[in-house]
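Progress report, Aim 2. The chain analyzed during this reporting quarter is listed below.
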Amino acid sequence: MSTWWVLLAFLGIAAFFLLTEHRAHVWGLTPYLLLLACPLLHFFMHGRHGGHGGHGGGSHAGHREDPPIPRRPPGRTS
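Predicted structure tokens for the chain:
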């Protein structure tokens, strides 16, 4: 159990020094990290509702259908 704490502390210290000493390199990676975040967010966020084909029918838990809009009878204006 104590080896995990030592490993965690070592990784934390290593990450700190990598970020402080190589800040310019880390800032250079930010556009690529943003581009990588797009497909990852798409993958994880769309996994909740069954993909792209499930929008048309069926019952979705938590989804509420709007009530139909009432129509005026023909010939009456108000």
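The two ends are 78 Å apart (CA to CA). Residues 4 and 10 are 10 Å apart (CA to CA). These observations will guide the mutagenesis work planned for the next reporting period.
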